[in-house]
Automatic annotation (TrEMBL):
Lineage of source species: Bacteria, Pseudomonadati, Pseudomonadota, Gammaproteobacteria, Moraxellales
Protein family membership: Belongs to the drug/metabolite transporter (DMT) superfamily. Small multidrug resistance (SMR) (TC 2.A.7.1) family. Gdx/SugE subfamily.
Molecular function terms, GO-annotated: transmembrane transporter activity
One BP term from GO: xenobiotic detoxification by transmembrane export across the plasma membrane
NCBIfam families membership: PRK11431.1
Subcellular location: Cell membrane
Keyword Ubl conjugation: no
Name of this chain's protein: Guanidinium exporter
Length: 105
């Protein structure tokens, strides 16, 4: 169950990062509120998961999901550029997440 929750927490991180982007520096009310709500939910789930999973594993997976998810939202929703170096970076992050998962008991 901890793994499911850390994935959800990571997805919430993607949502709050996107909402922060569209809040335009917290000048738009609805995205600003959504940023705070999803940020709190993401941190709360991460804190709960850390009762079970090791700190290094939970935090690494959470940030990795957030990083790669935000990268994908940037490409598919915001039209950010896709370059070979950016793709390589995403592949390396995903590889690290897989190794972290495999190394956890």
């Amino acid at each position: 169950m901890a793994w499911v929750l850390v994935v959800i927490a990571g997805l919430f991180e993607v949502v709050w990062a996107y909402c922060m982007k569209i809040s335009e520096g917290f000048t738009k009310l609805t995205p600003s509120i959504l940023t705070i709500v999803f940020m709190i939910a993401s941190f709360a789930l991460l804190a709960h998961v850390m009762k079970t999973l090791p700190l290094g594993t939970a935090y690494t997976v959470w940030t990795g999901i957030g990083a790669v998810g935000s990268f994908l939202v940037g490409i598919f929703v915001l039209g950010e550029p896709v370059t070979a170096m950016r793709m390589l970076a995403a592949v390396l992050i995903i590889s690290g997440l897989i190794v972290m998962k495999l190394s956890s008991s």
